[in-house]
């Protein structure tokens, strides 16, 4: 319990520091939040499997990408880092799957994604290519997490699916926030949902 509160507090300090333009402090506490998630993952009593290795790699890549994003350096490399982290999380779900695939889930996710893309198109016209790339990666992440939940059930798998959906929501909010910096409480919404997504995906392997 205290570990999760520490993660939340560190994340809140990071967001507050970012709002106050204390970039290095924001980057440090954001990295600390993800590092604490990594430590919690590896300090559990249960045997760590290949899925935990993929989540761990995703957390490490996210730390580097977040730092680059906050200090506004090597933004293309930062974008690649976010994509790689999402692929790592995807792999952690795909390795759990075996047997038949539920095809209606990707069809539904694709339909929702297309509708959301055209609704947001007027707001992200300068970001179409990166949005489409990240959208495809997030689509298959949600598909993998949703498949695991539908086939295996359980609270842990449900948290993983909700975490993947929250990560998608965070990416959408980030695209809108970058286009409209005046969005009310934009940084709190983006960073808060982003940290929540990492926490839920990690929690799916701990509880």
TrEMBL record:
- Topology within the bilayer: Multi-pass membrane protein
What keywords are assigned to this protein?
Membrane, Transmembrane, Transmembrane helix
Q: Where are the transmembrane segments?
A: 52-70, 77-95, 101-120, 127-146, 158-176, 188-206
Q: Which InterPro entries match?
A: TMEM86B-like
UniProt KW Cytoplasm keyword: no
Q: Where in the cell is it found?
A: Membrane
GO cellular component terms attached to this protein's record: membrane
Pfam families given for it? YhhN
> Can the keyword Transmembrane helix be found in this entry's annotation?
yes
Q: Which family does it belong to?
A: Belongs to the TMEM86 family.
Kindly provide the name given to this protein in its UniProt entry: Lysoplasmalogenase
Upper taxonomic lineage? Bacteria, Pseudomonadati, Pseudomonadota, Gammaproteobacteria, Vibrionales
């Amino acid at each position: 319990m205290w570990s999760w509160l520490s993660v939340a507090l560190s994340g809140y300090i990071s967001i507050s520091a970012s709002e106050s333009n204390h970039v290095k402090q924001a980057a440090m506490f954001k990295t600390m939040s993800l590092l604490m998630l990594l430590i919690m993952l590896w300090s559990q009593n249960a045997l760590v499997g290949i899925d935990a290795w993929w989540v761990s790699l995703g957390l490490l890549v996210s730390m580097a990408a977040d730092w680059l994003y906050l200090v506004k350096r090597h933004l293309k490399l930062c974008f690649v880092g976010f994509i790689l982290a999402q692929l790592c999380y995807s792999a952690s779900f795909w390795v759990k799957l075996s047997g038949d695939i539920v095809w209606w889930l990707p069809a539904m996710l694709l339909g929702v994604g297309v509708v959301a893309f055209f609704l947001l198109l007027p707001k992200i016209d300068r970001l179409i290519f990166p949005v489409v790339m990240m959208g495809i990666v997030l689509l298959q992440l949600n598909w993998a997490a949703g498949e695991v939940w539908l086939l295996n059930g359980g609270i842990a798998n449900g948290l993983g699916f909700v975490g993947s959906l929250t990560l998608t929501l965070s990416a959408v909010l980030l695209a809108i926030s970058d286009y409209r910096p005046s969005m009310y409480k934009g940084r709190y919404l983006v960073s808060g949902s982003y940290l929540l997504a990492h926490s839920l995906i990690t929690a799916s392997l701990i509880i």
